[in-house]
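Raw record, unedited: Probable branched-chain-amino-acid aminotransferase
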Amino acid sequence: MSRTVYVNGAYLPEEDAKISIFDRSFIFGDGIYEVSAVIGGKLVDCEAHLARLERSCGEIRLALPWSKAELVAVHEELIKRNSLDEGGIYLQVSRGAADRDFAFPTDATPTLVMFTQERNMSSAPAAKTGIKVVSCPDLRWARRDIKSVNLLGPVLAKQFAAESGAQEAWLVEDGVVTEGASSTAWIVKGKTLISRPLSNKVLPGITRKAVLAYIGETDFTFEERTFTLDEALDAEEVFITSATSLVMPVVQIDGHTIHNGAPGPTAIRLREIYLDFAKKGGALG
């Protein structure tokens, strides 16, 4: 059955969706995207995703002509029209269509497209077994805090992971882990969760933010600092977070087994708490 998608104000069957070949997202990668999770037919932390969308657009001087309320309404309508119980909603906004020129067009109207993807997230089999990660050099640009549609670096890293029999790639720069190709990287030492500080080098993960919002309900503490691959290999636990993987245990990095090779109690507990909040709409209000 064909999905209903959203293109510039219209809800359409996916096979009828079209944008201009002159759209700047297609020619220059001049656009921003977000992916919001849906669990139990409800959006998870959508307001936080839209706040990040607004920030990213502001950083590239792309004015959003839609209010947050309007964007939430489109999300909810797509959930309804596609009977989406669990999965994600992809949103992409570009600077619009104009004849090819690097400088910003003066008369282009932003393009907005959105679509749903069904995905088993709350009971994903990988959560029970853990995932494998490979490392590779971080070859991306200097503004990784902007959620740009320009994703060639992560695409190449993800392909390397797939060809290596892994499910995620960790990007390494200056001897330390920056983040996953599509996730935030964490290690656990004792009762301390460790993830690197926010900066232009990493995306400010919404699931990361959610985990930190509910950490007060646990006996875990948080240490914000960089860490090396060697430190990750010696950690008691390793996990990643993202909108679609939620909290996902990592059991192997570059062929080296983490601890006993099974998902650890910390990641399991954090995932359980996250799912409890997600079913109520999220941990961020």
